[in-house]
Amino acid sequence: MKIFLKLSLFFLFINASFAQNYKTTNGHIWFISDAPRGKIEAHNKKVICELNILIGEIEFTADMKSFEFENPDMQAEFNSKYVESEMYPKALFKGFIRNMTDINFINDGTYNAEIEGSLTIHGITKVIKQTGTFTVKNGRIYGKSDLYILLSDYGISIPQPVINNINNYIDISVDLVLDKSLN
Fold first, then answer.
1. Contact, 107 vs 140, CB < 8 A?
2. How far apart are CA 92 and CA 111, in angstroms?
3. How many CA atoms, within 13 angstroms, populate the side-chain half-sphere of residue 156?
4. How many CA atoms lie within 13 A of 120 on its CB side?
5. What is the C-alpha to C-alpha distance for residues 128 and 34, in angstroms, rounded to an integer?
6. Comparing 78-82, 126-130, 137-141, which segment has the lowest mean pLDDT?
7. What is the pLDDT of residues 82-119, one digit of tens each?
8. Which pLDDT value is given to residue 155?
9. What is the radius of gyration, based on Cα positions, of the chain?
10. pLDDT interval class at 38 (50, 70, 90)
11. Matching CATH number, 2-180, of 2.40.128.110, 2.40.50.140, 3.40.50.720, 2.30.22.10
């Protein structure tokens, strides 16, 4: 009987620890750069995101080659000339939700989030603070955020011949649907 109780408590603990982690492997991140000669836009729908709702830890990984452009030539230039994806294949964000007491990941609702962490792009890491929202609905967590970065902050230079075609300031949007993780 004692062993049965211990095993039951062990499996209950294991189940509780799994329930605190949410994950997606098909998060959507896209960026837009409005420049004098046109808009540049690319989408990545293969972003991995993990969220620990117990401690508010959140992590994103985006494969740079998974950003898709309308123009294939632009996509090739993005990977070879700008983000140098052979040398810097991933963008990474690791951070925490700073206002965890304001968010109830168990009950359905929409909650404002304050997120702070380290964003690494092109081998350069910067601390960023950003706001966003989490919507909890039917056991899933939907996350949304927008942020703005300067390419030059991440060592991404714009070649002189196209400096008037590309804006140094880009708008990045995040849209996620997170499900309970089994591992």
1. no
2. 24
3. 26
4. 15
5. 22
6. 78-82
7. 899 999 999 999 999 999 999 999 999 999 999 999 99
8. 93
9. 19
10. confident
11. 2.40.128.110
**pLDDT averaged over every residue in the chain:** 88
For the segment 10-24, the average pLDDT, to the nearest whole number, is 62
Both tokens of 183, joined, read 């591992």
Residue 168 token pair: 């140094």
* pLDDT confidence of residue 11: 44
Question: Does residue 166 have a pLDDT over 90?
Answer: no
- Per residue, the 3-state secondary structure of the chain, as one string, reads CHHHHHHHHHHHHHHHHHHCEEEEEEEEEEEEEEECCEEEEEEEEEEEEEEECCCCEEEEEEEHHHCEECCHHHHHHHHHHHCCCCCCCEEEEEEEECCHHHCCCCCCEEEEEEEEEEEEECCEEEEEEEEEEEEEECCEEEEEEEEEEEHHHHCCCCCHHHCCCCCCEEEEEEEEEEEECCC
What phi-psi label fits residue 16: left (phi over 0), alpha (psi between -120 and 50 degrees) or beta? alpha
- Alpha carbon dihedral 120, 124, 128, 130, in 10-degree steps, equals -40
